[in-house]
Amino acid sequence: MSKSEVKKVVLAYSGGLDTSVILKWLQTTYGCEVVTFTADLGQGEELEPARRKAEMAGVKEIFIEDLREEFVRDFVFPMFRANALYEGVYLLGTSIARPLIAKRQIEIARKVGADAVSHGATGKGNDQVRFELSYYALEPGIRVIAPWREWDLTSRTRLIDFAEKHQIPIAKDKRGEAPFSVDANLLHISAEGKVLEDPWEEPGEYVYSRSVSPEAAPDKAETIEIEFKGGDPVAVNGDKLTPAQLLTRLNELGGKHGIGRLDLVENRFVGMKSRGVYETPGGTIMHIAHRGMESLTLDRGAAHLKDELMPRYAELIYNGFWFSPEREMLQALIDKSQEHVEGTVRLKLYKGTARVVGRKSPKSLYSMAHVTFEEDSVYDQHDAEGFIKLNALRLKLLRRQRQG
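RE: above sequence
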């Protein structure tokens, strides 16, 4: 399909510098009608300015949709049932948002009869892969326009020059400069670029917006309780909440205590390393609480199998394969494991840490009668001798053979 054959394109539009430039670029380069789609995933920003900027650019069809509940219920919660961590630490806040945006973008493209979809991800990053794998999984014949791979605006400086030439408003951060790259949703906020590109430089406090520094957090610990049902959190301190409400509440609690900060050099799917600074206050608490609940309710074999599979599951999400059959297969296994993960976890929040201090469940596998150091009538300690000897048999045979 040539440029002239593209009549209408749906653009994932934030109203920021990149997508504002892309909107104008699509209009001038492809001569097509542009439909904008702005998703409210809980980024905490007023979205009406995006509508006004799109209107100023002559956009006739503008979609601004609140997807917060769907985001947490159908994407964040399933991922957290797996305890997913990329490279052992990253809670995948950006990664898990992309398939939902792509899904809704494709639905809008079908609705308005668009020929193509477009995104603002660069040719160096992971997001181009996440968006486009999702597009093709949902609509194999869709045309994808990735401006960063086509145009000659190869730097942020050129982008700003283009914006000024076409009188596109540019957001300014508190230091009077065009902001470093930020991605935000209800699960996390990330920052990268500018001084953060040097992994030796410590990020200043101005980088953080969802949490106080642990040093400035309250000097007194706060105790909270999270209730789980089917592997998902359903209440905080006895208050039943919707998924988005619950994550919002945990974000407030975690941010107050400086929880969830991460300074990470990660391996991108495209092959390079990148440095990002992440804040995931509510997600960090939820992750720790969920593991605390599983410790009481999951069988050892099931728990260990989940832990073995988790890195693969996390990598699939990081690399953009949410809609792949292998992710769906793993999800079915994970969801089966969560049937009896219910009960209440008590945690203490204090200066950047969330610590499990209690857990209880009607489905608990913990037997005080078996583990007590006091006298019991349910466990014969003599049985351990044969158990140990059988497990030691192959080790003894190996040592004898090697000794000749």
